[in-house]
Amino acid sequence: SSAPSPITATLFPGDGIGPEIAESVKQVFQAAEVPIEWEEHYVGNQIDPRTQSFLTWESLESVRRNRVGLKGPMATPIGKGHRSLNLTLRKELNLYANVRPCYSLPGYKTRYDNVDLITIRENTEGEYSGLEHQVVRGVVESLKIITRQASLRVADYAFHYAKTHGRERVSAIHKANIMQKTDGLFLKSCREVAEKYPEITYEEVVIDNCCMMLVKNPALFDVLVMPNLYGDIISDLCAGLVGGLGLTPSCNIGEGGIALAEAVHGSAPDIAGKNLANPTALLLSAVTMLRHLELYDKAERIQNAILKTIAEGKYRTADLGGSSTTTDFTKAICSHL
Amino acid sequence: SSAPSPITATLFPGDGIGPEIAESVKQVFQAAEVPIEWEEHYVGNQIDPRTQSFLTWESLESVRRNRVGLKGPMATPIGKGHRSLNLTLRKELNLYANVRPCYSLPGYKTRYDNVDLITIRENTEGEYSGLEHQVVRGVVESLKIITRQASLRVADYAFHYAKTHGRERVSAIHKANIMQKTDGLFLKSCREVAEKYPEITYEEVVIDNCCMMLVKNPALFDVLVMPNLYGDIISDLCAGLVGGLGLTPSCNIGEGGIALAEAVHGSAPDIAGKNLANPTALLLSAVTMLRHLELYDKAERIQNAILKTIAEGKYRTADLGGSSTTTDFTKAICSHL
Ligand SMILES: CC(C)[C@H](C(=O)O)[C@@H](O)C(=O)O
Ligand SMILES: CC(C)[C@H](C(=O)O)[C@@H](O)C(=O)O
What PROSITE patterns does the annotation carry (chains A, B) (predicted)? Predict the structure, then answer.
């Protein structure tokens, strides 16, 4: 923290195991001398009328100001009259792209080797419009909205990501054979953007076929871009290939270059406070945040230390079949920095 | 065919490899002395105004009359002003449930062992309404429709199937945390039906989590029931676990007990007419048709002969890594009857 001008980043430790895994990130960042100062915000215990949710207005202002943040798992309180915390964040901060790198962890065996995919999900519209109604009893309708603007925006992000990360191919995932107009517009937008990136191969894959191909041979894919719901489904499927949401990072990109990295697994209230949680997903998400800040050296060093610790297998948390505590796992990572 | 009263069944050989794999079914059925007479119908070469598609009215009348049929792959001709052949069949015959058993084939190795699942998909509404519009330029909307009637109907089919097939659990797959009203109505309907089947365990699983669990450990599931699009996605994912659509059967159930079994893979025009196609999916689909007709002995005998032939591995078609022709593979099956 003696670096010239430390970057301020918002930290939402979140609920359940959130504070423990956030502590792990803080320790690893300190050990790696990452020039970041955290501005911590917790979910409120009453609805903030300005956000219509339990998220405080101040916490959103913090992300808007800092333009970069890290978020642990948040359990939306049960009840009516308020919005889900995750959806509020996406909406209020206009987090239009959800980026999830998904790769096999060396030494951690699953049925799949050498997975190395990026899923990029449109995060603001589609099936998540929240517009549903029942006019005739027993007949309910839900509106899916696809816009040219949001489709171009996420497609552009995907191609730009591919280009700047040495990726060769972008696959647009769709069901335009059935939803010709909505998914058709999504594809049309992707095609338009593809023309600006002649060095990137572009293809279109129907979602059902995509899922079949992913489980048969995930090496067929590189970068995948898709509307909201398909992204929700496929990003979890891909996480499953390499071990699950406890091991995969996620980062949300907003207008004007905001980046909010997050662990997308649950808050695991059953093991909260017991020093048993696996901080890997939040740590790897924090690494994506560092890359976004162009702190590539720090990102690389921390990622290598995490992967090395998992590969060695001496310190693994219970979810990975080990018996290490969160703090011992974290110490092992620090020792590998 | 000297049996007292043979059953008449409609056969759509379909396009591409369709006629070859249909021929394989005919030969196996003959060798097994199945008391079925086929009434063959081909896709027409012009639009029939009564069906608004290339399917002839007579062919639909044939299924309506016989109440049972088998269908090879159909390639919907390109062009405007007509409906997809598959969707026309589902609509005109009110094929409300698509049932796909998905199990590991002994001796045919994939990444997964002992898969044994049934996916049951609502087949008439949901995201397949065909209702899409663009009012504002660049903003397209699509309507998803969920009705209580269709949800109860498919849920009832799923629980009845579980009960009569010795299955223990039905999982309803949904995204009701986002689409609270539409998927909420689907779940409510499933719960209502579940109460009538206290001997069957009922659970609800969010689709993204379901896909992650399926790739991590498919043994967690038994019978899955879900709205149209989720069924489209998950049935293909499950097929991928055991080798793909070339190996998995499918049967559509309509009002009044109509059953139309079908191979859901493509028509593979590149290998059509070359005696290279794998007839397994159509054969196993024909077996589900026999079970529907309560011809259990014949179904069992034929299924065993197919599985034995694949397990031995001496006669396998190219898609399974062998070099057998369709006819040799078929002969091998007949020799195992
Ligand atoms: C919790 C849920 C609302 C959320 C979503 O559907 O987007 C989650 O599945 C995710 O992927 O972040
Ligand atoms: C070809 C297509 C219209 C169809 C569907 O989406 O239902 C197919 O994927 C299927 O599952 O039968």
Answer: IDH_IMDH (PS00470)
